[in-house]
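G., the chain you wanted modeled:
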Amino acid sequence: MDELAAARIGGTYNQYRDSPVRRERLRAYLSSRRRAPILLVGEAAGYRGARVSGIPFTSERQLTGHGPAEASATIVHRVLAELDLEELVLLWNVVPTHPGTETTNRAPTRAEVEAGLPLALSLARGRVVVPVGRVAHRALGGHHVRHPAHGGAREFGARLVELRDRGDLLPGSA
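Predicted structure as tokens:
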């Protein structure tokens, strides 16, 4: 946690540096998922998601019932719950900090992806890694799913079902 809070990843905003609440939320989340066999890895923290909540693919509204909602976070949690996978999955981002402003997202640069990758790889040890979207797939390779944003919700869910049904989400399958 200290390493993440101190990290400088290109021009991204490190939401953990100035927020004990976000650090504690992430610490508790990581602890609760320490045995999760699947790591679902997105691109970067979103301005309505982890930038505010501190937890990847999770909005403040999902945690507290207040604050901004985030479409991708809503879709990811809904699909994982429908497939009975939510407790088996640890959510993360290749770039754990937020590229963009308080009200916008931008794609992370190649250098930002490279700087965030070691943290993702450390969480990947012993887990089946499923990149979400092109950026995460380019960084991590392997079986991937479409990002749920911009009309991709159905494909995201269908691909997770396909991976689950083929047994590709079982440890040792990748």
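The two ends are 28 Å apart (CA to CA).

Shout if anything looks off.
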